[in-house]
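Person: Show me a sequence?

Helper:
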Amino acid sequence: MENNEKINKNKRLSNKISKLFLLFVVPLIILLGIYTWYTAHILNERTKEANVHTLDLYSNEIFQDIEGADIFLNSITSNGKEYQRLQLNLPSIEIQDYERQLLDKYRAILQTNKTVSGLFIFNPGRGCYGAAFRSNVGEITQIELIYYFKDLMKKIQSGSEDRMYIEQIGEQYYLIRLKADKGVSCASVVSFSNIAKNSLVGKEKYVFYGGETGNVFYTDLSREETRILTQNSEKDILVASDGNYRSVRKELGILDINVLYLMKEESHLFLDMTQSLLLCMTALIALLLPFSYRSMRQNIFSPMKSMVQTIERIKQGDMELRMECKQPVEEFTQISESFNGMLNQINKYKIESYENELAVQKARLQYYQVQMRPHFFINCLKNLYALAEEQSYKKIQQMILAFSSYWRHVMQDSLHLIPLRREVESVRDYIELMRMTMELPPCAVIDIPIYIQDYMVPPMLLLTFVENSIKHIITSEKQVQVHIKGMMITNGQQRLNLSITDNGPGFSEESLKRLNSSVCGDEYQGQKIGISNVKQRLDILYHGEAIISFSNNRRGGHIEIFIPIRER
């Protein structure tokens, strides 16, 4: 026993890989780590200089775009014909035309200006709310900005405004340039989020924050990392959750906005003599890797290849194929045994599923056999013949209509749900037929609220029990009385409660025991085939969640049905 455990332990994948790792990979990783650290140390100053240069270019581009948008707005408000016309009391069609011309100029500016997210023109007094956005500005953001300026125009009204400020709208911060005069306002909006994302070309990140206020307008880092960084913005290195970043700070020159440029530290291949020596040592160790590979191939790769080939053949349909259980690695042996067990279980489930499908088909076919009520059909034809001899054509027409409606309901698919209203109509049709054919017509009281009659139920759910009641009471000399009641109950889950009560002799003790039993025997034999069919269909349609009970009360037989609510 101890020898087997020792053999299994030596064959474990974790032990084999650990030995290979200690012998070959660990020394290689140590040397590569030393080499990487040394290279990164040399490149620190070069990286810092490159980052400063990158941030200068980026900041200058942003500043020039914002300044260009400001010059454009000044030009529009000072000398723009369209802006001046919008201040006049012109007809609405002319106002709309000048608004369109101004928006065309806005769109032309947005083609060349990569920083500005949107330009606006507002004249609330004339119902003018024009805006042009970049294609990357979402619809929700556009709506938030338009509503913000509409609210702002209510405060400004016909006053004058000429300012640049930072505002939080929704979840984003924006740099807004606003010029307003004589009830007409122009504005440009710059999203810190957009200008940061538009400039990302690699692993760099940006943080925009206020120098004095410390408010963070945009960050690519977590809130905690951003707080630490802005409080120590003069430090060169930031240790973030996804690695180390070298940081460079620069004032944007607009409203005391600061930009932090973060570049993830990486090593590059700039080799000196020391680095070359380290590289040669790494190569020497790498020469030992073929021996490691041979061992891994025998113990890992070959068994894995065999397992994959087995899986592919099973995938192609060879479900009788099994994996080799005796493997050189203990974990592979466990996988093979588990996989083979899973295949055996799948085959078992497939057989059970096939048998269940056959049972469903059998239930459907035998239900159709139940639907074909030959005696009832023949009796209806005899009654029609008798009425024809009496020349009671009006009654013949009524009976044919009721019979066709009843037969249409009987012949529909037993596993498709129908509205409760249609089931109630089929019961009424059947009662009407019985009234025409019986000397002592039956009486049915249906107490089902209108608001629950749109819920879906299986066909023949009520009709089967009504037919059963009339069939067993018809031999007596008293009038058949059936009371059908429906309601919705809520007890953790909404359910539809339907009950059928008759004035017959009720169920015998043997029948009650058999009908209320949850053990399924041969449901489709004997005189209770219709009731058994209903129970079978409820079980199929509601997966065991439907409840049906049979009992006797002082009036006669009583049936309670509880099914989950399903709307049309």
Notes: The first helix runs from residue 2 to 11. Residues 521-527 have pLDDT under 50 and may be disordered. The chain is about 55% helix and 20% strand.
